[in-house]
UniProtKB/TrEMBL annotation:
GO biological process: rRNA processing
Biased composition (Acidic residues): 97-110
Biased composition (Basic residues): 1-14
Species of origin: Amblyomma variegatum
Family annotation (InterPro entries): Bystin (IPR007955)
UniProt name for this protein: Cell adhesion complex protein bystin
Amino acid sequence: MGKASKIKVGKQKRNVPLDEQLKEELTARKARIKSRNRKDEDELFVDEKLTKKILDQARKQQEDLEEEHGLQSSSTGGKFKLPDIKLRLPGNTGASSDEEDDEEPGEDDTFYETIEVDEADEKALELFMNENTQARRTLADIIMEKLKEHETEVATLFSDAGSVQMADLDPKVVEMYRGVKKVLSRYRSGKLPKAFKIIPSLSNWEPVLYLTDPDSWSSAAMYQAT
């Protein structure tokens, strides 16, 4: 006859009052929550350390680029600057509302590019920004300049009055061209006297022209004559 197997009877649960059971349950729940919070803090701490390391490496890389391309502010007068590198802490999107308010819309999605300015572009910018640049001359300024040049030439040509022989001229011709002189001194617009127009065709045009006294001509008459 076989041996009867023994039936193992587990320990009976001790009778614990209901309030004690509730306290134990609350204590266990608080312990689980505290453990979860500690785990989250450890992960955040690791992320911050990693981010700081990335920032340090990026800053060092930026300094190396500045030294390599000669873009330090001390050597260029602060004209050129590499774009700033900004990184956001992972998992920390809601950390500070003030930082989000300071950022412009779409800043996180924008990529900046360094613009290289060559010597020709720099000279063009300097010319554009130069406050001492001479004002552009107008058409009237150019005309007046030409008139003064011709006036100077005529005055030089007839500066020596003794060199002009007036004895060979008819008195009527002398009187007529002295009248032309008065007309040219007051001339503003309109037709010029015919006697004035035929002067270039005369064989003795120099003494005749001298009678009109070019120094007394108006600017309009000088312009028509030239």
